[in-house]
Structure formats: structure tokens, C-alpha cells
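Record 1 of the preview.
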Amino acid sequence: MKWIVGLGNPGAKYEDTRHNVGFMVVDELARRWSIPVTQSKCRGLLGDGHAGGQKVALLKPMTYMNLSGESLRSFMDYYKADLEDCIVVYDDLDTAIGRIRLRYQGSAGGHNGIKSIISHTGTQIFNRVRMGISRPEPGRNIADYVLSDFAKSERELLSEMISYACDAIEHALDHPFESTMGKFNR
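->
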């Protein structure tokens, strides 16, 4: 089973914020694959079904960003799921808005959700789709920035980026992640 974890924060207050772009990707995959993500399980919202000819699960941790690893670990333990079958989707300050970067290993790079996952899995080796949100202008508080909504001028780029990330994840369902990286990293 392939499983996709989109990182974000629960609640209407955070719904359209930059930090929730991982949730946005899971929501689009749920729409594409007709998989409701409504089961309250593994400290998150979960949906499962089939896509690309195989069983898939979609997970949105409800632990808040900084504790995302708790939900991911709970899923792994409950389903005896392999981390190599997982793709984690999250926001990235160091990638320009509208762009994605796929990686299969690396440090947390200051991202607290990824720090939590590394802490709860004991490894930095797992598939990732980093969604570009760009850095704020100098002097702006980063926490305020990631918890802010996308500007109207960024909405088209956001929509295209979400669609492109979903295309990459669909490709990864039946191709090695390294091959998917080669095709979708620009």
C-alpha cells in the first residue's frame, strides 16, 4: 500500500495558509481518486481506496504541524506500513512559490513537522514533495508568514503547483521515486 501524508494544521483558521499546502495536495488527491478523507484514525483524518491500480491511503495529521510525526508513527504501527511506501507533502520556504522539489532523504531544514517525523521514525530517509511557498520579505516574522493565506496574485501559481504535485504523486504510484524525481524536479 502506498500512503501519502500531507502536513498542515487542523481547523478553519489555518485552512488556506501556506503551512497547509500539504493538506491541500491530499484534498486534491482525494478529489481525483474519489477517496473521502473523513475517518478519525491514527491521530489524523484518513481515507483509503484505490488509485493507479493499487491500494492507497491519504492521511492528514490532526496533531498540528509540530507533532506530525506522532500521527505518521501511529499509522505505521497500526497498519504495519513501510516508510518507503510513504510520500510526505509539506511547505518549503526555500522553494519558490509555484515550484515543487522531490527528495528521498535529507535533514529537516528547520521545518518542525519534518523534525517531528524524523524524531518518530528515527530516519531522514523518506520520500518528500516539498511545495514552494517562497521566503517572506526581510524583517517579516516567519511564523506569521507561514500561517498567512496566499495572496490573490499567488493563487494561480498555487493551483498549478498543487496539480503538478498530484501528477508527480500519481506517477510515483507505479514508478520508482527516483524516476519520479527525475521527471518532476525542474
